[in-house]
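Posting for a labmate who doesn't have an account.
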Amino acid sequence: MNAANYNAAPRERHARKAGTANSPMPAAVAKHAVVSPATSLDDDEARAERRLQKIHTLSQRLSQYARGSDRRQVLRTLLDPDLYPRMHLIGGVSGVDDIAAAEREAAGERASLNGVKFLQVRSPLQGRTDDSYFLQTVREVCGHMCDMNGVDADPMALYGGLLLRLCRSASERDALEALTLWTSGQTGELLLLPLVRRHHRPDSTFPLAEPVELEMYVEGGNVHAKVSMRHELGLFRRLDLEAGVEGIREALRPWNGLVEMAQRERLLQRSGVPPQHKKKKGGGAADDAANSLTRQLTNIQYEALLLTRFSSGHKNFLRPWVYINADVVERINFGTGSSVRILNVSVPEDKNSGYVKK
């Protein structure tokens, strides 16, 4: 008899003597055996704490290797899916207050629509435009799809919904917010920043961002779309920034504390706590606090981004220590209003100079 059976046998013999071996559970006991909402809430918070600990472990390793100037170990750590997840589920598009501004931004994008490429974009010297062949084609396709039999949709509402997803600045901010918590720990040795592209400075000659991929089709009387957008990011060592960029030390002073607070607030917000319990715990205030911290972090990141030293034309151009690609992919069913938005992360081997290989 193994240890488990040995330990169980006395309990079974005792139950048979008491006549309760196969008796049903009393109603009073069954009532108390149901998991209470408070217990479920505690489990959710425990899972959030474990996730927070995982982020903390990753951040500590990255900071340790950054202090030791061990770029190879940083890359190996980022390539470990157990430490750095490759896929993140993110919320809907936020931060688009002006649809006209979103349209102007989308007009400057290179793109492909159902495989047809639109790569001709006006240069800053030719003047800015509020329209492009790509957007004109999107509007025409929206009109044709809404005229199809069985489709009940407004072409302008459909076009406006697509413009929200084609706003690169909003998508980039969402990707940056999701990944900053994983790559910038308490020590703050590494800073995740976007690479400067044309949409950051529309009147400049900076390189254009990667083309946007848009797919549209009709199925079951509903218009569906898939929007894929790549954001090129870079991890910069804080020591390099402070040594070479005048005035950035003061700008980065609140960085460490903000990251630590944002990690805890955001992870508890994503822990799956039922809405009624969030309300009891002051969930609305907690959400506002998390969003406020995230906005402060992104403001610091974009303030650092727009410094001259990040310009490729500058004589002392500062390159990222590690290059990261963040692909935001969203699938939308405009008929039901449902959507799924996923952030896929990769560490491109070609940009990271062969350090990825062991």
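Reply:
Got it, the structure tokens are right above this. Residues 41-346 form one domain.
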